[in-house]
Specification:
Oligomer: single chain
Strand content: under 5%
Number of strands: 0
Distance between the termini: 77 Å
Radius of gyration: 24 Å
Number of helices: 5
Shape: elongated
């Protein structure tokens, strides 16, 4: 008999193997315990499966752009102008599409937060395509 720091007894270990046997053999979730399955994607989740978020893509463009900017920039950068923001994006290895969109913003403008910046990026994208 092994004397170690096992947390489970031999009987409980065998019991757990038996419970997981279907999952381990099938390679996909079984319907025995649905609470263990991952939740499906919600309708309002931002699109992240198609690569980096860029201004002007998809129906939730403002939300996804704001989310990406907040993830990369954080709060410490603001208030700032486009040049400071481009340097911050470059330091944090942001996607090129965001840096290029930032280059199209007026140099004299200053942004106090991510929401204001995301709105300006979307607005510049719309005027560019119109």
């Amino acid at each position: 008999m092994q004397r170690g720091s096992d947390r489970l007894s031999v009987h409980r270990d065998d019991e757990m193997k038996h419970e997981l046997q279907g999952l381990l053999r099938s390679g996909h979730p079984t319907r025995t315990e649905e609470w263990h399955d991952p939740e499906p994607v919600a309708d309002d989740d931002p699109e992240v499966a198609r690569g980096p978020v860029t201004p002007g893509r998809g129906p939730t463009s403002l939300e996804s752009t704001r989310l990406e900017l907040a993830r990369i920039l954080g709060r410490g950068v603001f208030p700032a102008g486009p040049r400071e923001l481009m340097r911050a994006l470059d330091r944090r290895h942001a996607p090129d599409a965001l840096v290029e969109a930032m280059e199209r913003l007026p140099r004299k403008d200053r942004y106090t937060g991510v929401q204001e910046l995301a709105e300006a990026l979307i607005r510049s994208r719309r005027t560019e395509t119109a």
